[in-house]
Amino acid sequence: MTDYFIHESSYVDKGVSIGSGTKVWHFCHIQQGAVLGKNCTLGQNVNISSNVKIGNGVKIQNNVSVYEGVELEDYVFCGPSMVFTNDLTPRSKYPKEREAYQKTLVQYGATIGANATIVSGVTIGRWALVAAGAVVTSSILDYALVAGVPAKQIGWVCECGKPLQGKFKCTVCNRYYKIESGVLSRK
Ligand SMILES: CC(C)(COP(=O)(O)OP(=O)(O)OC[C@H]1O[C@@H](n2cnc3c(N)ncnc32)[C@H](O)[C@@H]1OP(=O)(O)O)[C@@H](O)C(=O)NCCC(=O)NCCS
Ligand SMILES: [Zn+2]
Questions:
Q1: What is Dmax (Cα atoms) for the chain?
Q2: Which pLDDT value is given to residue 170?
Q3: Residue-level pLDDT at 2
């Protein structure tokens, strides 16, 4: 019995694992060996490449390709038309073996804004937020808010998504934070 939903316009290859409650909407392709967790939502025109691992509660908006070498932990949000990469120096004439693909890790709860680009080989920390249109070229701290091209940290952001604007208490949800050695965490 399947307790997930795949729209009839989408393709799921053999050897794919899909968790219960997950919804895959129109024109998607989930490739061989991919693992999709529980309660995920994939919007229209999403491609999940071979062997990609995606956690539980992940939301991927329209027009996103998650290439081999990328891993998304639980509750990651990928905004519409954001772009992952897995090769810093691609050449059509000299294609690399899949072992050479660079790894990108998006950690628990992190959000990537619409149309952002993630250059491969970085880690996006837990609950970090990448602004719309940013180009991420280096790793991002937990709870960091980054924006621009190349992306720079412009502040910190709460688990609820509200920028903290220099305060250690969120004005929306009242969560408290502390900073130690330049790293933000919950208090
Ligand atoms: C980054 C973000 C969280 C900032 O939110 P905010 O703090 O309410 O933003 P503000 O409008 O107060 O802007 C704060 C500053 O950041 C700048 N800024 C806002 N968004 C930016 C972006 N995407 N890229 C670069 N700079 C940005 C503003 O111009 C402003 O700069 P200033 O202080 O020099 O005037 C928000 O703009 C954003 O990009 N969210 C992602 C939205 C998204 O992609 N959703 C996808 C699902 S629909
Ligand atoms: Zn909050």
A1: 54
A2: 98
A3: 75
Give the separation between CA 75 and CA 78, rounded to whole angstroms: 10
For the CA of 163, the nearest atom of ligand 1? 7
Nearest-atom index, ligand 1, CA of 157: 3
Q: For residues 80 and 86, is the Cβ–Cβ distance under 8 A?
A: no
For ion ligand 2, residues whose CB falls within 5 Å: 158, 160, 162, 170, 172-173
Note the pLDDT of residue 26.
98
Residue written as token pair 């091209």: 149
27 C-alpha to ligand 1 centroid (Å): 30
Looking only at the bridges linking them, the beta strands covering 59-60 and 77-78 are parallel
pLDDT, block means (10 residues), the chain with 187 residues: 92 98 98 98 98 98 98 99 96 93 97 98 98 98 98 98 96 97 96
Distance 131 CA to ligand 1 centre (A): 6
CB 186 within 8 A of CB 175: yes
* Ligand 1 atom with minimal separation from the 115 CA: 44
